Amino acid sequence: MSCGVSKAGFLEEEAPRLESWLNKNMNGEMAYMENHFDKRLDPTLLVEGSKSVISLLLNYYPQELQKDTSYKISKYAYGTDYHFVIKDKLKKLLHFIREEIGEVNGRAFVDSAPVLDKAWAAKSGLGWIGKHSNLLSQKVGSFYFIAELIVDLELEYDYAVTDHCGNCTACIDACPTQAIVDPYIVDGSKCISYFTIELKDELPSSFKGKFDDWMFGCDVCQDVCPWNRFSKSHKEPLFNPNPSLLTNSKKDWEEITRDVFAEIFKKSAVKRTKFEGLIRNINFLNNSD
Which domain of life does the UniProt lineage start with (predicted)? Predict the structure, then answer.
């Protein structure tokens, strides 16, 4: 786990970017992105009296990948849903801080509240935001979760690091749906992850044949990134998948039942798309030839 700290306050640089992104409807049907605009940009509105944002990274790069890649699942969803795993760790950290220092007002956030995780992690020196809009680190690439503790403590603050994407356009060139419309700008409404997880309606026929066999999420922009050569497998047992996830054949996925879905994805983030959603995605891939 990596940790960085920045001073809580209004994110001036992010405000116009977020406004422009929303005005262009790049959030698709993710209407929640339009809510709490001010809170997204200012953590002091989320936690009264907050002075510091403690950003944390937790690696999820798996030890083993799916053997049959006829239907692929994003690596972040292999094991137990990260919301539960990280929230527990953050609560322990906050408890430890209180034991050491005394009464501290703070809240833990794991991608489930209006907090611009990547912006805070970059501000805290944990990496830079790459052209694929993910946080990148020279040491460990981009396969990690980001979480925050926002607290009313004055701390020593870290400094942002420089951008090391250079002239590389690997992620832009590789995106199957051309969702990276400009360097550092991803049109969320064109992203395979959006289609396979967030979109509840029928998948658009104009994208048939462009999903690169992803049935839940997509890792293409991360898989091709040169900095991910340095990814090392995680050491968190809760992120280890149900063995069937790694060994299932094309036929196994096509014939998956509700009970088997419940067993394989018992505590997984894949439950977000529900059984019906996964079947919809599999059928879409099947009819894309």
Answer: Bacteria
**Catalytic pick among 81, 111, 182, 252:** 111
C-alpha separations of 211 from 67, 130, 223, 246, 282 in Å: 19, 22, 15, 20, 11
The separation between CA 49 and the C-alpha centre of its own chain, rounded to angstroms, equals 28
pLDDT grade for 277, boundaries at 50, 70 and 90: very high
pLDDT digits (tens, 9 = 90+) for 169-186: 999 999 999 999 999 999
- Per DSSP, the three-state class of 258 is helix
Q: 131, 88 in Cβ contact below 8 A? A: no
Beta strand ranges found along the chain (DSSP E): 2-7, 52-59, 72-73, 106-109, 128-129, 135-136, 144-151, 180-182, 185-186, 214-216
Identity at 142, one-letter amino acid code: S
Output the six-digit token pair for 200.
């509840």
Cα separation, 115 vs 111, whole angstroms: 7
Rg of the chain taking only CA atoms, in angstroms: 19
Q: How far apart are CA 273 and CA 200, in angstroms?
A: 8
Look at strands 72-73 and 214-216 and give their pairing.
parallel
CA dihedral angle for residue 206, residue 210, residue 216, residue 220, rounded to 10 degrees: -140
Residue 49's alpha-carbon distances to 7, 46, 150, 154, 284, in angstroms, are 12, 9, 10, 11, 49
pTM confidence score: 0.91
One-letter amino acid of 75: K
Contact yes or no for 155/147 (Cβ under 8 A)? no
Q: Is 111 a catalytic residue?
A: yes
